[in-house]
Amino acid sequence: MADQSRRGFFRDLLRQGAKTVAAFNEGREEMRLRQEREAFFSSYESSYAMTLCEDEVLMDSARMAGIETEGRDRLEIAKELFDRQGDF
Fold first, then answer.
1. Is the Cα dihedral 39, 55, 53, 30 positive or negative?
2. Domains of the chain: which residue ranges?
3. Is 65 helix (H, G, I), strand (E, B) or coil?
């Protein structure tokens, strides 16, 4: 029969290993989403759905979200609007 302290040690070791792998995968997914966001907003053309819409729609949406629009670039406003709507 195996020593209970050894069994407990290996059980805890496996649990911690599983938690470490899960945390690593979460971090990797978060990084992938962040990179996708940066790629999306890398230019006006790639983020056309938000930056090339009518001024009135973008500005009204920003104001409703409480975003200051005065003196800001459309791309900056779209990024902040996206961030407030998403999980970033």
1. positive
2. 1-40, 43-88
3. coil
Cα distance between residue 84 and residue 55, in whole Å:
19
Instruction: Say which residue the tokens 């290996």 belong to.
Output: 10
Q: Give the list of residues 6+ apart from residue 41 with CB closer than 8 angstroms, or none.
A: 47, 75, 78, 79, 82
Condensed to tens digits (0 to 9), the pLDDT of residues 41-69 reads 777 666 666 666 677 888 888 888 899 88
Q: Residue 77: is it exposed, middle or buried by C-beta count within 10 angstroms (0-12/13-18/19+)?
A: buried
What lies within 8 Å, CB to CB, of 44 at 6+ separation is 51, 52, 74, 75
